Amino acid sequence: MTSEPHSRRLGDHGPTVTSPALGCLGLSGGYGPTDDAQGIRTLHTYLDAGGTLLDTGDFYGSGHNEWLIRQALSARNRDAVTLSVKFGSLRGPGGTPGGNDGRPEAVRNFLSYSLQRLGVDHLDIYRPARLDPAVPIEETVGAVAEMVEKGYVRHIGLSEVGTDTIRRAAAVAPISDVQIEYSLLSREVEDGILPVCRELGIGITAYGVLSSGLIGGSSSTGGKRAYFPRFQGANLEHNAALVAGLEKIAAEKNATLAQLAVAWVAAQGDDVVPVVGARRPDQVGTLLDSTRLPLTSDDLTRIEALVPRGAARGERYPAALMAELDSER
């Protein structure tokens, strides 16, 4: 029997959602071929199990992901689902990255298309996927705040931004959460971003919990993994061996490595909500069953000893993508 997700509130200003959230990127490519019918069944499986938080982006599959979610929600109660949508990452034909656009007029344009594709009259959380260096964050967040006033958006989120940007954004309007990579292999958020978010009452939605499948998934270099430094050459050998050391702890708890990794992120605080992708219905049960693994302080100490902070080799993204991350500055 699949476990039920837990409920957590996203900061002082955000909605109450289920943890873990379902990351929907993999349903529209990025990790290999997809099947729309299977993707819709995967969404139904998560929602039927009591999950509420769906994380997507208007650029996932260049709009395909929002269309897919619309199919899954067509016969459901809209108010029972929390839709978190990222915007601003530009794509060309074939998915070629084209920079980021955070201009107020672009915000309104992106939003109108997302509402149409999803078939809803509002989004629960709306966030720029990356900081547009040419546009002050005050202008981007201010434009979203106007959409909150008009009823098209309920809450404002951020993604992959640094502490200065977080403070400036929070001075304009209440921020529900910052979405950022956080996993056993990516813990830089602990330096400044997590403490600042806690100071300001902002939640964390943690993606990349399984490090693109390196933890408890596939270590193959197919799809976008071929370009990720952690999946290349000696880096891959080192990182795979590092993660393998956790297998004993997972086995003791009758759990998978993936479940242990999700549980570890969830154990970092009630203000942290793991966002985990699934491409098949059976994977949904696996991610939700991570909630039955409360980790003790001794467990966390053992895990820390096996995978100490900074032990992974290779950056989490290729150099060109790392350069876009305000969170890394």
UniProtKB/TrEMBL annotation:
The NADP-dependent oxidoreductase domain, residue ranges: 22-306
SUPFAM superfamilies: NAD(P)-linked oxidoreductase (SSF51430)
Pfam families referenced in this protein's UniProt entry, alphabetically: Aldo_ket_red (PF00248)
InterPro entries attached to this UniProt entry: Aldo-Keto_reductase, NAD(P)_OxRdtase_dom_sf, NADP_OxRdtase_dom
Keywords, alphabetical: Oxidoreductase
Gene3D superfamilies from the UniProt entry: NADP-dependent oxidoreductase domain
PANTHER family tied to this protein: AFLATOXIN B1 ALDEHYDE REDUCTASE (PTHR43625), ALDO-KETO REDUCTASE YAKC [NADP(+)] (PTHR43625:SF40)
UniProt protein name: Aldo/keto reductase
